[in-house]
Write a structure and sequence with these properties.
Length: about 210
């Protein structure tokens, strides 16, 4: 994005606070529905970072795939299951919390060191004026990375077919259904006699 240096710095600070706060809420909140909503905030913050890096295609994919599909799927799964369980107190819980905090701090220090040690370079390639990142990604997809792109498409197609097969209902032919169970007790009940009401007068009285 062609923004001023101050605007970029302020946007980066706001997105950073939003991402860190949402991530902490996902981990620390006891209500899993709130955690799922805050996870959507983390994904939206990441899309904002991609926009600051002029990666508009990745930002749009981030919102469409992660916020619009993955996060919504998580919310629907949580709300449809709606299982409430009272957690019993765990002995020596502080040991597990301390170990989890150490692991998180170690990962944070490792990622921070990697970010500081990586020689980030500015893109020096030639880009035609008027063409965005979408055009560049399309060119690489159908030239340099054509084989991995097609393999990923085949894998996604196989996963979709497998999901359809697992989710479909088994069809039982009528020839395999026993004859004694084909008719229920409701189908053998006597039908109530219908009465025709007169158009101009009162309805006829029911016979005793």
């Amino acid at each position: 994005m062609d923004l001023a240096q101050g605007v970029q710095f302020v946007s980066f600070a706001i997105l950073s606070v939003m991402m860190i706060g949402s991530a902490l809420g996902v981990v620390l909140l006891n209500n899993i529905v709130y955690s799922a909503f805050l996870l959507g905030g983390v994904f939206i913050s990441m899309a904002g970072f991609y926009l600051l890096l002029n990666a508009d295609f990745v930002a749009a994919a981030q919102i469409l795939v992660y916020v619009g599909a993955v996060n919504v799927l998580i919310l629907f799964a949580i709300m449809l299951v709606n299982k409430r369980e009272d957690f019993k107190p765990i002995a020596n819980r502080w040991i597990r919390q301390g170990a989890t905090a150490l692991v998180c701090l170690g990962l944070f220090a490792l990622l921070g060191t990697m970010i500081l040690a990586t020689p980030w370079s500015i893109y020096s390639g030639t880009m035609v004026e008027g063409e965005g990142s979408v055009v560049e990604i399309g060119k690489h997809f159908f030239s340099d990375f054509l084989l991995p792109f097609e393999l990923a498409s085949v894998l996604l197609l196989m996963a979709m077919v497998g999901a359809i097969i697992l989710a479909r209902r088994d069809f039982i032919p009528e020839s395999l259904i026993p004859r004694d169970t084909s008719e229920t007790e409701f189908s053998t009940l006597p039908e109530r006699q219908r009465q025709l009401a007169s158009v101009g007068g009162d309805a006829p009285k029911s016979p005793r």
